[in-house]
Amino acid sequence: MAERTLTERELNRALLARQLLLERASLPLSRAVERVGGLQTQYAPSGYIALWSRLEGFKRDDLTKALERRSLVQGTLMRVTIHVVSARDYPAYALATMEGRFGAWRPAGGPALADLGKLHRSVMAFAGTTPRTRAEIQEFVAAHLPPSAAKNERLRSWFSWAAVATSGLVWESAGAHFEHRQLGRHVAPPPKLRKTPKPEAAYELVVRRHLGAFGPATIADIAAWSSIRVPNIRAALARMQDLLRFSDERGRELIDLSGAPRPSADLVSPPRFLARFDAAILGHAAPERTRILPEEYRKAVIFSAEVWPTFLVDGFVAGRWTIAVRPKEAVLELKPFKPLVRADRVALALEAEKLVRFYAPGSKTHGVRA
After folding, report:
1. Contacts of 320 (CB under 8 A, 6+ apart)
2. 179 phi and psi, to 5 degrees?
3. Three-state DSSP class for 183?
4. Is 344 within 8 Å of 334 (Cβ atoms)?
5. C-alpha dihedral (153, 159, 165, 169), degrees to nearest 10
6. Contact 358, 52 (CB under 8 A)
7. How far apart are CA 32 and CA 26, in angstroms?
8. Residue 317 pairs with which residues in a beta bridge?
9. For 55-112, where are the alpha helices, taking DSSP H only?
10. DSSP E strands, 210-309
11. Rounded Cα–Cα distance for residues 295 and 22 (Å)
12. How far is residue 253's CA from residue 11's CA, in Å, rounded to a whole number?
């Protein structure tokens, strides 16, 4: 039975608390990434901006060094999209999302999932010590696929992203700002991160990570975020002994971890900047994302395969932002969806000035335009 009904504003504050958006946290980087359910990083600067908005004293080199040390790992995981997760969690994420990833890219009629799993392990070994180009991986895959699928461009492309991508964030020679550049090389995680955990443990960890980062949530939310099949989600939940049940204002059942934060709806929320493809917006089933993204603004933020950078006022998306970086000047522009009251405009501008200095430390001048 449901403990009680949670209002949309209560769900908003719960999401903000778990996404570290109510106040910046002082956490080890790996723990913070686990807490927020990973970072979606197909646009590489997003991970850096997401962590800047969530962690006290975060520096740009912190994430780069963690990826180089492999305390954090980047790979194709949830929703067949590039994510950064902790090294400790990576094996569970890789196993739990495997069926969904193959299902999204496998051509109708085959190959069998077991054969694709075997080929996946071979690709990981092929890219395990030497970074490979996309063409090299595709050639390797074509040589090992059944003849009926060897020419399938979609499947061969998927395998080129199945290995951890070393492409992504690089710096201008002056170190002034982010530049997103695909370097076109892919390297697999080290063997110790490719060890296969027990499936039950993998599914339970990923379900637990979702609830900890985005709960209270529906089963549909967990499935949409992770691409895990619903029977596996239900089985994982049945094994978990620390769950509570709530309902939302539409009467839907919400599941949560008993010890997770559920702050008061009246808690003050400071202005925050969300990165492109930020997890706070993508953690729930579409189009039910109104606990942070008002429905009236959804099409201005999410369309096609794009999720634009946004900012929060009072905990809800209130507009988009863009940044222009030139050799001598960096300007962040605020694009509110409706006029802001003076107090919110001032607080948002102060936060925006900090972000533009983080984004482009080498520029001589920094500005904010509303």
Report:
1. 300, 301, 308, 309, 310, 311, 335, 337
2. -135, 125
3. coil
4. no
5. 20
6. yes
7. 9
8. 312
9. 60-69, 90-96, 98-105
10. 243-248, 253-257, 272-274, 302-303, 306-307
11. 22
12. 13
Structure tokens at 287: 């189009």
Backbone phi, psi, residue 355, to 5°: -65, -45
Kindly list the strands in the beta sheet with 39-40, ordered across the sheet, starting from the edge strand earlier in the chain. 39-40, 82-86, 72-76
CB atoms within 10 A of CB 222: 27
Q: Which of 233, 180, 175, 197 is nearest to 92 (CA)?
A: 197
Nearest to 88 by CA among 51, 34, 28, 19: 34
Tokens 């990576």 sit at which residue?
90
Q: Which two tokens stand for residue 194?
A: 């490719």
User: pTM of the entire structure?
Assistant: 0.91
Output the tens digit of pLDDT for each of the chain's 370 residues: 667 999 999 999 999 999 999 999 999 999 999 999 999 988 888 999 999 999 999 998 899 889 888 899 888 899 888 899 999 999 999 999 988 888 777 777 778 878 888 888 888 888 887 888 888 888 898 888 887 777 777 788 778 777 766 544 444 434 455 555 545 567 777 777 777 889 999 999 999 999 999 999 999 999 999 999 999 999 999 999 999 999 999 999 999 999 999 999 999 999 999 999 999 999 999 777 899 999 999 999 998 889 999 999 999 999 999 999 887 899 999 999 999 999 999 999 999 999 999 998 888 889 999 8
Q: Where does residue 61 rank: exposed (0-12), middle (13-18), buried (19+ CB within 10 A)? A: exposed
Q: Phi and psi for 268 in degrees, rounded to 5?
A: -70, 135
245's tokens: 């049940």
Counting DSSP H helices and E strands in the chain, the numbers are 15, 17
Q: Under a CB-based contact definition with an 8 Å cutoff, are residues 163 and 188 in contact?
A: yes
- Two tokens at 167? 């492409």
- Fill in the amino acid letter for 227: S
Q: Residues 233-248, buried b or exposed e (16+ Cβ, 10 A)?
A: beebbeeeeeebebbb
- Please state, in angstroms and as integers, the Cα–Cα distance from residue 99 to each residue in 28, 61, 116, 171, 286, following that order: 31, 34, 10, 36, 21
